[in-house]
Amino acid sequence: MARTAVKGRGAVQVLTALAVASPVLVLLSVVGVRGGLLPIETGYDLLTLKIAWWLSFAGAAAGVLAVVVALRNFRVLGVVAVVALVFGVGTLGVFIWQTRQLAAGPVENVSTDLTEVPGFGRLRPDRTGGLQPAVGVEACPGALPVLTQVSPETAAWALQEAGFNLGQAGVARADGSRQTVWFGFRYDAVIRIRPGRTDIRVAARDGRPHGGEACRLATRVSSLLNDTL
Question: Which helix (H) or strand (E) holds 191?
Answer without folding.
Answer: strand 186-194
